[in-house]
Amino acid sequence: MNVKKIAHLTGHRGAVYALSQASEHTFFSAGSDGWVVLWDLQQPDLGKLVAKVDAHLPNSRTHVFSMCFLTEKALVVVGDMNGGVHFIDLKHPENTKDIAHHPKSVFDIQLINNELCSIGGDGVLTYWSVDDSKSIESMQLSTQALRCMAYCPVRRELAIGSSDGNIYLLDEHKNLKKTIYKAHQSSVFTLQYTPDGAFLLSGGRDAMLMVRDTNPYDSVVLSQPAHWFTINKIVFHPNRPLFATASRDKTIKIWETGSWKLLKVIDTIRHGCHIHSINNLLWLDNQLISASDDSSLMVWAID
């Protein structure tokens, strides 16, 4: 397997936490500077600032931890460290809505079956109406923070990882159908289903990569110390049996789906990878994008 860094994107003034696809070759990034930036892989050096999430206090910044792009409505929805959910209207900025909802950080936002879902440090899952940007329903799943979500359309199932180490599974009717207790020794930071829905992958603060057979969930296929520190993100390749993990240990690792074998380690010394924690990954146009605490993004070609 060959790895080549094809772009190093700079411009953010702090850690980059959130990534969201905009089109086949464009994506958004956001982070601790409160900026929402649009990038084009065909012109990677020309990032465009499209919005700024402002803090309420003078001389302070709003850290953006999560983001979701609603293509049909041209809305970028971001969640901040103070619990705010911001509906940014790209075509009509004057219609942008800033809603103080979660009392603590919003760690993940996703569009699921035409409903927007947000989770936060308050342990609450909230469903939002996309049409009027209003909350519909909230569920208290944990007394600790909810950190990540993954939806499986094949199983019609939503998985939510928590700082209590549990994974909560909800059915298509929003009912809690199962709890995987102590799935990790500490916080569950990232979840992903395999495209066929046969397995659920999770990574956590304990640096463990876990693979569970979804039928039944009690069957653990893999339990491996995959990184030195927290696994922040797991993403699957769009059309190859590969997935990538990103960690606070400043490395990206490429794995084979099914065999769960480690194929490649992308690090600072050999590949010029990030010099601080890698917070997020996005596979776009067959290229892997990484976002880091070092305020930059990198684009990788993996053959």
Largest sheet: 4 strands, antiparallel
CATH topology call: Methylamine Dehydrogenase, Chain H
Number of helical stretches of at least 4 residues: 1
What portion of residues is helical? under 10%
CATH-assigned homologous superfamily:
YVTN repeat-like/Quinoprotein amine dehydrogenase
* CATH top level assignment: Mainly Beta
Bulk shape = globular
The count of domains is 1
Mean pLDDT: 94
CATH architecture heading: 7 Propeller
Per DSSP, what share of the residues sits in E-state strands of 2 or more residues?
Answer: over 45%
What would you note in describing this structure?
- It is a single chain.
- A hairpin with a 5-residue loop joins strand 24 (252-256) and strand 25 (262-266).
- 1% of the residues lie in helices and 56% in strands.
- The model has no long low-confidence stretch (mean pLDDT 94).
- By secondary structure, the protein is an all-beta fold.
- It has a single domain (12-249), classed as Methylamine Dehydrogenase, Chain H (7 Propeller).
- The longest helix is centred in the last third of the chain and has 4 residues, at 268-271.
- The strands form seven sheets. Strands 1-28-27-26 form a four-stranded antiparallel beta sheet, with no helix packed on it. Strands 2-3-4-5 form a four-stranded antiparallel beta sheet, with no helix packed on it. Strands 6-7-8-9 form a four-stranded antiparallel beta sheet, with no helix packed on it.
